[in-house]
Design a protein that fits this description.
The structure holds 3 protein chains of 3 kinds. By secondary structure, chain B is α/β, with parallel strands linked by helices. Chain B has 22 helices and 14 strands. Chain B folds into 4 domains: about 100 residues, Glutaredoxin, CATH 3.40.30; about 210 residues, NADH-ubiquinone oxidoreductase 51kDa subunit (Rossmann fold, 3-Layer(aba) Sandwich), CATH 3.40.50.11540; about 90 residues, Ubiquitin-like (UB roll) (Roll), CATH 3.10.20.600; about 90 residues, NADH-ubiquinone oxidoreductase 51kDa subunit, iron-sulphur binding domain (de novo design (two linked rop proteins), Up-down Bundle), CATH 1.20.1440.230. Chain B is globular. The C terminus of chain B is likely disordered. Chain C folds into 2 domains: about 70 residues, Ubiquitin-like (UB roll) (Roll), CATH 3.10.20.740; about 150 residues, Alpha-Beta Plaits. The chains are: A alpha+beta, B alpha/beta, C alpha+beta. Chains in contact: A-B, A-C, B-C.
Chain lengths: ~180, ~575, ~250
């Protein structure tokens, strides 16, 4: 993969990857953070926004740039649940599992979603189409139960309505979508 | 050198600008209403105003949360010199009609009017949320026009830092994050602490499920939080401040950062604030999904870019906190109370609430209620008033079973305690706690052991793993609860559960572990029979062993003591 | 730990025994000095205080909460009780849960007979485990030429992390993951043998309280740890006492 190669070169300290502009953006963030070690979490956020997930190359790159031991970067990144180390699916369905949603049957929705698409919560389907996850509280408790599909909040969901909606979203865009 | 804002000028010109409009239409643009479709509603309002050519008479203002989130999207029409009207569940079509009929020809759309005389609104007392739903959170002018930053100006001009602390002390303000520690005491400790620089942190890492008080405050009135922080920093001698916000709240982050930029440009932050010799730098720091970071020492670790594990106290943060420097952490809601107290005086604040718990508390009402949403009520109000007057009772003629306050760290309050007042002491005495303000109401369709299991699962997921009793105890307690809830638990499992509750509570390192057993203990206190009903009867040896459902897992070693130790 | 200069000046009572403590000493320091044993697991003399095992909690008179003896400095007239029935039970449950968390089968462990967890089980009267064994499916890392890491025997005391960072200065180890998924990782969760920063010094192995870190090639019961070497090293460096080391191992 081109991404891996460029990152590797960067990791070897040859300044930085020609092609991948995302590293340039990451560098900009690092400069803005004045390479302060306490900015690690902020920088990880930016890296995840840029690359979609935190690959090993990125972690090595950040460890180098911030002059931190790799095990420490790994420890911090894996402590926080918002950081992801695998590429997300093309579509996402996040079921809110806050108390209000739980009280109104969010568990059922998760179970049905998992069964229908043969994934575990927090994982992506084998074809890379759908990531199913749960959230702690989306903060829209008045609309419980809430499911966030591709970033759009849908309210007062049932298992059936969620499955139908997710099915629609998946069907809308055929698999050959671009990178 | 930043230019200095002239508060009176800004307020004056803003009020003058407002008075040019005959009608102001406020459209709730809070997260809850946005997810209910407030975005298109606001567009429709703007377009309709343009189409009807009333642009110069009508101002459409995007505001923060108006409170009754279950009826969103909400729109409030405020004609000059006439009674305001609130509309509920507004669609783009209704929005167009609001402009065309209500604004232009002054004809109300009756079927969508939301009565503001109902207890949901009239029983509330708004201090912290005074501006929420009334001003455009992205405009500092709106905040200043409502008297914003006057308290700060007054404090900087007329009060010594000690006098500010005295006012806070007299007001009886206590930490709104849950524990209820007297705010002035904390401030005083930081003031007296030796070392420089000193840090001030606003804790906006609201992790309780079903709680979004702090988010609303930060999103709807970011300048109030900032003003509270500047006053706190002035009183305590802090020169750097951080606002720690959950990454799950991108809007709050965006608005706070914007507000900080604007405030800096206006000379309200940075060097020589409002012409005084007081300096303060503010920064927003974002969490990354860890409930434990609401704990003070874990929060500081996270700000330092480390794993968010709590550390031992003492030393307390006010002695040795961020980077070893004296640090004070206040909840966002606590700080948002400060400008109002300094502006109106301690006595004014003390009139609200009870003798021990003064002022108001913001709650996020959720669960089986007719009205759910965000409310601010005087301390000491009874649970019954919150549930039945403000919340409108249980929908579909359901029966109130219990209310959980304080989220996974709190406890449940059964119907028999409906008349107990809601304040720090009373709740703690009842085995619950104020928490940050989540209040979830459950009707009689909920099984309480399931509720306890739900919260224990949360604690298990959120345990940081540093201390053994919390890391392993939450796993074991969850396994025991799971067994009981699935109907294969035995009396012995319940005994183990109770003893583990004691151990985890008394030996865990931080608040998360210490309070993790609370939901179990309180549901056991009030609904023990529900647990007992789920247990498998003990095997008797008189030849009539009752049928036992198959166990889901390999037998636990403790079972294999037949001929052995006991 | 800090042993101040001059005379001990703070009177304290530990389990009825009166003693004089130095300024800045912790309860655990004083207790150890006067021969009162307080159970502990993550604490190790010479390393920073972690406070994670919670076994060294003690009762302090007039204090409603138990205090962590490894981290609480003594104050004058402090009266400490190191064990009561409740504390004993708490400790037993914690030790039991640590056993349940990993796969601790003493009969096949290199550290059998030289294991602090085993000693603690005896000390806290653990005779069987009342809780569900979690049967973790953790990995064994035998990639290092000299040492082995068996994560199923790890109790997450972080002594290895601290000794590597604080004494050796290599920071090979850190804790990855969170909660019950926490585990000790080398570098970016890489095989230990591939770690470019590991100096093969073996201090992490010497301080491990269980059989999680061991010398390669040792059979069941053959592993001998030497955690006290760290305190020796620290004092030797700080105070120049290079000769006060008894023969070990």
């Amino acid at each position: 993969m081109a991404e891996a190669r460029t990152a590797e070169r960067a990791a070897q300290g040859e300044g930085h990857p020609s092609g991948d502009e995302r590293f340039a953006l990451l560098d900009k963030t690092l400069r803005k953070a004045r390479y302060q070690q306490d900015q690690l979490i902020e920088v990880l956020h930016v890296a995840q926004d840029l690359f979609g997930h935190l690959s090993e190359d990125i972690l090595i790159y950040l460890a180098r740039q911030l002059k931190l031991p790799p095990s420490r970067v790994y420890g911090v990144a894996t402590f926080y649940h918002l950081f992801s180390f695998t590429a997300p699916g093309r579509h996402s369905a996040t079921v809110c599992m806050g108390t209000a949603c739980f009280v109104k049957g969010a568990e059922e929705i998760v179970q049905q979603l998992e069964a229908a698409h043969d994934v575990r919560s927090g994982q992506t389907t084998e074809d890379g189409e759908l990531t199913v996850s749960t959230a702690r509280c989306v903060g829209s408790c008045g609309l419980a139960p809430v499911v966030v599909v591709d970033g759009v909040v849908t309210s007062h969901q049932t298992a059936e309505s969620t499955l139908a909606h997710v099915g629609e979203v998946l069907a809308k865009e055929p698999t050959e979508a671009s990178t | 050198m930043a230019k200095q804002i002239d508060l009176h000028d800004v307020a004056h010109s803003e009020l003058e600008m407002r008075s040019r409009y005959t009608t102001r239409v406020k459209a709730c643009s809070s997260t809850a209403c946005l997810s209910a479709g407030a975005g298109p509603v606001r567009q429709a309002l703007d377009q309709a105003a343009e189409r009807e050519d009333v642009n110069s008479d009508v101002q459409v203002v995007p505001t923060g949360c108006m409170g009754m989130c279950s009826s969103g999207p909400l729109v409030r029409v405020e004609p000059r010199g006439a009674e305001p009207t609130m509309y509920a569940q507004v669609t783009p079509d209704i929005a167009t009609r609001i402009i065309r009929e209500h604004v232009v020809v002054r004809k109300l759309i009756d079927e969508h009017v939301l009565d503001e005389d109902q207890p949901f609104f009239s029983r509330q007392r708004k201090i912290v949320l005074g501006n929420a739903g009334r001003i455009d959170p992205e405009r500092i002018e709106d905040y200043v026009a409502e008297g914003g930053y006057q308290a700060l100006a007054g404090a900087l001009n007329d009060l010594a830092p000690e006098e500010v602390i005295e006012i806070i002390d007299d007001s009886g303000l206590r930490g709104r994050g849950g524990a209820g520690y007297p705010t002035a005491k904390k401030w005083d400790m930081l003031r007296r602490a030796e070392g420089s620089p000193k840090y001030l942190i606003a804790n906006g890492d609201e992790g309780d499920q079903g709680a979004y008080m702090d988010r609303t405050i930060m999103e709807d009135d970011p300048h109030r939080v900032i003003e509270g922080m500047i006053i706190a920093a002035y009183a305590t001698g802090a020169s750097h401040g951080y606002i720690y916000v959950r990454a799950e709240y991108p809007t709050a982050v965006e608005r706070l950062e914007r507000a900080i930029r604007v405030a800096r440009r206006q000379g309200l932050l940075g060097r020589n604030i409002l012409g005084s010799d007081f300096d303060l730098q503010l920064e927003v720091r974002i969490g990354a999904g860890a409930f434990v970071c609401g704990e003070e020492t874990a929060l500081m670790a996270s700000i330092e870019g480390r794993r968010g594990t709590p550390s031992l106290r003492p030393p307390y943060p006010t002695e040795k906190g961020l980077w070893g420097q004296p640090t004070m952490i206040n909840n966002v809601e606590t700080l948002a109370n400060v400008p109002a107290i300094v502006a109106n005086g301690a006595e004014w604040f003390g009139e609200v609430g009870t003798a021990q718990s003064k002022g108001t508390k913001v709650f996020a009402l959720a669960g089986s209620l007719v009205n759910t949403g965000l409310i601010e009520v005087p301390m000491g109000i009874t649970l019954r008033e919150i549930v039945f007057d403000i919340g409108g009772g249980i929908p579909n003629d359901g029966v109130f079973k219990a209310a959980q306050s304080g989220g996974p760290s709190g406890g449940c309050l059964p119907a028999s305690l409906l008349d107990s007042p809601v304040d720090y002491e009373s709740l703690r005495k009842l085995g619950s706690m104020m928490g940050s303000g989540g209040l979830v109401v459950m009707d009689d369709s909920m099984r309480m052991p399931d509720v306890a299991r739900f919260y224990m699962e949360f604690c298990r997921e959120e345990s940081c793993g540093k201390c053994a009793p919390c890391r392993t105890g939450t796993v074991q307690m969850h396994a025991l609860l799971d067994r009981i809830c699935e109907g294969v638990g035995r009396r012995r499992d319940l005994q183990h559960l109770e003893s583990l509750c004691r151990t985890v509570r008394q030996t865990s390192l931080c608040g998360l572990g210490q309070s993790a057993p609370n939901p179990v203990v309180s549901t056991l206190d009030h609904f023990r029979h529900e647990y007992l009903d789920l247990l498998v009867p003990d095997v008797s040896y008189n030849g009539t062993a009752p049928s036992v459902p198959p166990r889901p897992q390999a037998p636990d070693p403790a079972v294999t003591t037949k001929g052995g130790s006991r | 730990m800090s042993r101040g200069n001059g005379r001990p000046s703070i009177p304290v009572t530990i389990d009825g025994q009166e003693a004089m403590a130095y300024e800045g000493e912790t309860i655990l320091d004083v207790a150890t000095r006067i021969g009162v044993r307080i159970p502990r697991l993550c604490y190790l003399e010479g390393l920073s205080v972690w406070g994670g095992c919670r076994l060294c909690l003690v009762e302090v008179e007039d204090d409603p909460r138990y205090r962590l003896s490894c981290a609480t400095p003594v104050v004058a007239e402090m009266a400490v009780t190191t064990t009561n029935w409740e504390l004993h039970n708490h400790r037993r449950r914690i030790v039991e849960m640590l056993f349940a968390e990993g796969n601790h089968i003493c009969a096949v462990c290199v550290s059998n007979g030289d294991c602090e967890l085993q000693d603690l089980a005896a000390e806290t009267d653990v005779d069987h485990i009342h809780y569900d064994l979690q049967h973790p499916d953790a990995s064994v890392d035998a990639s290092h030429p000299k040492y082995v890491l068996d994560r199923e025997r790890c109790v997450l005391c972080t002594r290895c992390v601290r000794v590597c960072n604080e004494i050796e200065g290599a920071h090979v180890w850190d804790v990855g993951g969170r909660g019950s998924d926490s585990m000790i990782v080398a570098e970016l969760s890489k095989p230990w043998g591939e770690s470019p920063s590991c100096t093969w010094c073996g201090k992490c192995v010497l301080v491990c309280p269980t059989g999680a870190l061991a010398f390669k090639g040792r059979a069941v019961g053959e592993m001998r740890h030497d955690p006290a070497v760290i305190d020796f090293l620290k004092t030797a460096r700080d105070e120049g006492k290079w000769y006060e080391r008894q023969e070990a191992r």
